[in-house]
Write a structure and sequence with these properties.
378 residues; alpha+beta; Rossmann fold
């Protein structure tokens, strides 16, 4: 139902805003007062071709807009079918149409703020407004008008509305099914691309923090000969026959013997004995480090093999070794989400049921036929 019409810079109209009430509205006036301009503006808004002559003299553009409400269920179903057909937002309770004509010869139309092609808005206009004039009798030749008249006469309007609602539900469910199948295909492709990565990482079985320890051990392994050589040199320097410990011990003992002749040497002896104890402690710590650094041949083989396994998987999945554990957790979670299959079968059954029900309603044509024979061909 048309509620408001606004016209700006159209023919000789500068600005006009009309409010329409429910029921019958009348605009009266003398010939030439502009009544036909209102109808012409509405027709152009709803898709009629327009020329530059329609733009008010001295203006760059003409603007026409109208506001509509949905009065009946059948009209709402038809309009929503149009919105769905041309991918417009179906969540609406009112319709705002707007058309702009400019001096450059361009014409643009909008439906609820979205740009719309002229042929599309003309199709929508046929659903919203019926304009009758002196040649309206020609409409009697229209098959759709004849069918609508017959349906009105046969009191089939409710049946038709129900059938339209069924068709709309069927098409909507079918579109959902197509989208779901497309999504399912994309999910399957995504799963396939993730599956081998998840499998590789799962077979590797890398634990949190394992790579950090493994890389340290592998680095030690590469420097093992140098480490052991340095440990050996240090050990000999500290604890051999001529090492630091024995040298300090013998020196302190000799000085202690002559300290009775020179008491000041006692302090020197105390310091040497203290230094000997600290060097001995350092030697013990060194031996501990040496033992920890020693890796047997079997352990060395395991480290090398594990290191190579991690590096191979890192190369395959194109991720740094220190990121592999986090990647596995992330991919495993993503793969688990994709495993949740969409219920395609259930929706397929629903679509088939609606389709069968739609095509089973042949009684509507039979009712039309009976009414036509009874009243038109008695």
């Amino acid at each position: 139902m048309l509620r408001n019409l606004e016209i700006s810079n159209f023919v000789f109209v500068e600005n006009l805003s009309l409010e329409f009430a429910s029921g019958f509205n009348i605009f009266s006036g003398e010939t030439g007062s502009g009544k036909s301009i209102i109808i012409d503006a509405l027709a152009i808004l709803l898709g009629k071709r327009a020329t530059l002559m329609k733009i008010r003299e001295g203006c760059d553009q003409a603007v026409i807009s109208a506001f509509f409400e949905m009065p009946t269920k059948s009209e709402e179903i038809r309009v929503k079918q149009w919105f769905k057909k041309y991918s417009f937002d179906e969540n609406f309770s009112e319709i705002l149409l707007r058309r702009v004509l400019d001096k450059a010869g361009k014409s643009r139309s909008w439906v609820n703020g979205q740009l719309c092609a002229l042929n599309q808005i003309k199709e929508l206009g046929d659903l919203l407004v019926e304009i009758n004039g002196q040649h309206s009798h020609q409409k009697l030749m229209s098959q759709s008008f004849q069918r609508d008249t017959l349906d009105e006469f046969a009191k089939l309007k409710l049946d038709i509305e129900n059938l339209r609602a069924l068709w709309f539900e069927w098409q909507k469910s079918n579109d959902e099914l197509i989208s779901m199948k497309r999504a399912q295909k994309e999910i399957n492709e995504k799963k396939a691309s993730l599956s081998w990565k998840v499998q590789e990482l799962e077979n590797l079985g890398l634990e949190s923090g394992e790579w950090e320890m493994l890389s340290i051990d592998h680095k030690k392994l590469g420097q093992m000969s140098d480490l052991l050589s340095t440990f050996s040199t240090a050990r000999i320097a500290l604890d051999s026959e001529n090492g630091v410990i024995r040298t300090l011990e013998s020196t302190a003992a000799e000085l202690r013997q002559i300290s009775e002749f020179d008491p000041t040497l006692n302090e020197v002896c105390d310091l040497l004995e203290k230094g000997t104890i600290e060097v001995q402690e350092a030697f013990i710590a060194l031996r501990k480090c040496e033992k920890e650094a020693e890796i047997d041949e079997e352990r060395a083989t395991d480290i090398e093999r594990r290191f190579n396994d991690v590096m191979n998987v890192s190369h395959k999945v194109r991720e740094r070794p220190d990121k592999l554990f986090a990647l596995y957790e992330e991919l495993k979670k993503e793969f688990s989400q994709l495993e949740k299959e969409t219920d395609v079968k259930s929706l397929e059954m629903s679509v088939d049921k609606l389709k069968t029900e739609y095509f089973s309603r042949k009684t509507l044509s039979k009712k039309r036929g009976k009414k036509r024979k009874k009243n038109l061909f008695p």
